[in-house]
Design a protein that fits this description.
Length: 322
């Protein structure tokens, strides 16, 4: 099957199915997800002060995976992002050692940053958070650690790291085996105290009518003799993977690895204009830091509104299954 996307041809397996929001199958899977039968999982490389579309994916997920051991790509939001002052768009960025060398994100060493410009453009003093972040970066940290520090200390996001789990060496099966091994280790993940996982998994909510069925499935999954096919079958029935677009899975399609993926929920994000300080026209696609700095001294209130902003303007486009 050939699909046209942004003027280019994209080849998909004949057994791949797209379900739009008006279809019964889409509504069925979404109903199962909302009814706690499925776990919503998303994954992404750790970004430097990620933008609203990135954070929306985290906020709608029960479990977020930081792909800290994936290959570093230059000139992306992994190492830099944008905010704005009264007239211009300003780049905030991290300078890396051996930036041209092919290495994973968690092996890129940060040697400099330009966060010192923030008080100049926003007329703020160094807050405890900003000062703590700058000290952390100045202590020669790796790129993944800096970006994960921001998620935890600024946004209070808990997550698991892909580097903590074994994965298939082959690129096309890397994400599949990562998801399976994380599901296999689900009991240990509870140490992160994910509220949504506590709500959705079998050991916390006996009210769930499928509690016994899910418990038996998880017991089967954790047995040493459980085959790869049995684990894939469990994942397909109990997981929804959220991604901003499907075209990033093109390499998996070509190698037929995508057939092992759970249903993929593809979303888009519409930027509702928020009041940007002392600026007449709204500029979207900026770093989440731009939103936060509108009222930096009341961070808890701003984060609450930012989460509501992200969740309010996410749009589900389709569900893809094989």
């Amino acid at each position: 099957m050939i699909v046209l996307y942004k003027g280019s041809e994209f080849y998909l397996p004949d057994n791949m199915k797209f379900y739009t929001p008006d279809s019964k199958e889409f509504q069925k899977i979404m109903l199962e997800t909302l009814r706690w039968d499925r776990l919503i999982i998303s994954a992404h490389q750790p970004h430097f002060f990620p933008w609203a579309k990135y954070m929306a994916k985290i906020y709608i997920s029960d479990l977020f995976i930081s792909l800290d051991d994936y290959q570093f790509e230059r000139w992306t939001r992994v190492e830099k992002n944008k905010i704005r002052d009264k007239k211009n768009i300003i780049e905030i960025w991290l300078k890396l050692k051996n930036k041209d060398k092919i290495e994973p994100i968690n092996e890129k060493l940060v040697i400099w940053h330009n966060l010192d410009i923030l008080p100049r453009y926003y007329n703020i003093k160094y807050s405890v958070l900003l000062e703590k972040l700058i000290k952390f970066i100045d202590s020669w940290q790796y790129l993944s650690d800096v970006n994960e520090f921001i998620l935890r200390d600024w946004f209070y996001i808990e997550f698991v790291k892909s580097s903590d789990y074994e994965k298939e060496w082959k690129k096309t099966y890397k994400l599949v085996t990562l998801l399976i091994n994380i599901l296999k280790d689900m009991r240990n993940i509870t140490e992160y105290n994910f509220e949504n996982i506590f709500r959705k998994t079998y050991w916390m909510w006996v009210e769930n009518p499928n509690i016994v069925e899910i418990e038996n499935e998880v017991e089967l999954l954790n047995k040493k003799w459980a085959s790869f096919e049995e684990r894939v079958d469990f994942m397909k029935r109990r997981v929804v993977f959220v991604n901003s677009n499907f075209w990033t899975f093109e390499y998996m399609v070509k190698d037929d690895a995508v057939k092992y993926m759970p249903p993929i929920l593809v979303y888009d994000f519409e930027f509702l204009p928020y009041k940007q300080k002392e600026y007449k026209y709204f500029i979207p696609w900026l770093s989440s830091l731009d939103y936060i700095l509108q009222d930096f001294w009341n961070l808890y209130k701003v984060l609450e509104w930012f989460q509501l902003y992200c969740l309010s303007w996410i749009r589900f486009k389709w569900i893809i299954t094989i």
